[in-house]
Amino acid sequence: MASTKRDLFIDFQHHESDYLAETSGTNEQLTFATLKMAEHMVERVKRFKISPDWEVIKESVLDVLGLTSTDFEELEDDFSELFD
């Protein structure tokens, strides 16, 4: 069975810090960074935990998405308010 682009994209998750280390601006990288940020926000707001890999990839995710720490904190606060 041939691998699809999506299969390969999902398969390399264990190399995510390398993938996010250099900003390429590709749709795949932007999507991946967005998913990692969303995953962390759900973990924190709904499950009251930090995603296990968040501390390792946080700065890279924010760089790829063009966000500052303040931007992210405001987004996270807004997201949290949806569940209050």
Q: What helical percentage do the residues reach?
A: over 70%
Element order, helices and strands? HHHHH
Instruction: State the separation between the terminal residues, measured CA to CA.
Output: 46 Å
Q: Indicate the mean pLDDT.
A: 83
**Tally of DSSP β-strands:** 0
Strand coverage percent: under 5%
> What's the story with the biggest beta sheet?
none
* Shape assignment: globular
Low-confidence residue ranges: none
Based on CA atoms alone, the radius of gyration comes out at 14 Å
Give me the number of helical elements.
Answer: 5
Class by alpha and beta content: mainly alpha
List the helices and strands and how they pair.
Layout: H1 5-11, H2 16-21, H3 27-47, H4 54-65, H5 69-81
Helix pairs in contact: 3-4
Write up this protein.
- This protein is mostly helical and about 80 residues long.
- Helix content is about 70%, strand content about 0%.
- It has a domain at about 25-80.
- It is globular.
